[in-house]
Amino acid sequence: MEVTLEGFLASELPDDVRSKVIEEYRWINVDYDWWEFVIDEFIDHMQKAYGAVLEKEKIEFDLDQGRHVKYNGSFWMNVEACKDKVQTLLHRLVDRLEGWRRQGR
Question: Can you say how many angstroms the Cα of residue 59 is from the centroid of all Cα atoms in its chain?
Answer without folding.
Answer: 12
